[in-house]
Fold this sequence. Notes:
Elements: E1 11-20, E2 26-34, E3 42-47, H1 60-67, E4 71-76, H2 93-107
Parallel strand pairs: 3-4
Antiparallel strand pairs: 1-2, 2-4
Amino acid sequence: MITQTAPLYPVRTIKHVRIPMADGVELDADLYMPAAEGKFPALFDYYPYRKDDLSAGGTRVHHYFAERGFVAIRIDVRGSGSSGGTAIDEYSVQEQLDGVEAIAWMAAPSEV
């Protein structure tokens, strides 16, 4: 049996947050976060499917997690959607390295 927990927080959404990569390219992210003070764990989607093309229903899960104390992040991979750079191939080494840098960005202290 799956039990859903009740929402704990209102949700604050921040669109088009730029995540800098070491080579100067910026990845574009949308953040769905608890509208409350404090630090919260993050989880993320990292897809080449252009996050801005989704209907409102496509972010339902992000709101769900944000209401329950997580920062849910949607990131466009390099060269897709609103991110800079050029997509070379699916699951390229560069795309994987960008993912590592994005995780480091998420773990760093932030004023967002």
